[in-house]
Amino acid sequence: MPAEAAKPCTLVGRLPAEPTQADLEIGYAVRGAEILACDARRGVAVDVHQAEHDDVDAWLKSLAPRPPLWRRALGLGR
Amino acid sequence: MTRLARTFNFATPFGGLVGVVILVAIVGLLIFAAGGLGFRFDPFDSAERRADQAESTAAAATSDASARGIEAAGERDTAARVDVVVRQIAAADRAVFSLTSDARIAIDAKDPLDPDRARRLRDVDQQLCAARPAICPDYSPTTHDAGGGGEALHPGRPPAG
Known about the structure:
The structure holds two protein chains of two kinds.
Chain A lengths: L20 H43 L5 H5 L5
Chain B lengths: L1 H6 L5 H24 L9 H59 L10 H17 L30
């Protein structure tokens, strides 16, 4: 699992002690960017997890002996 | 044989030992000669076991090579995915950085936020932190005011690259 995928999502854009209109605007945008980053990292985690399972399946399939020709011809390959 | 019997007295211990050695040598020569003709003297089936062992070693090596190949392809795929994500995050950071610059020089940039609105927003953040503290690294359940200082606001990160 890549390190990028392990980063947690955080609640960014929280207001300072004496917030201004600019702080509100910036906080709004920063929070949107964090949603994007968090979703991207989540997507990587899910994709890599699925890809690892697919790799294991492919490896197990490569270990299995090849079925005889008549089984493959009849579509009984597995 | 009579001359040999005269030379070595097989009835003595030394003669008996020599006789045994000669017998073993003859048997060894016969087995060697039979091996040359294609006969195998293998009473414990060691050749079969060696063949099985070599076969299993070859199968393990093939399996290992296959796994290494799949693993390498997986690593390349993961690196490509991470690269895409890093670029997406960098694009978002650039957009926020640009907005931050504009927001700081806007006409009403320094106008204080309505206190009621600020309180409502802080309350919501506080509830979110309480519901899932992991998303608020600086959160402690005893803190009721999230707006402890300027560090609570994380402005846009400078654009990467």
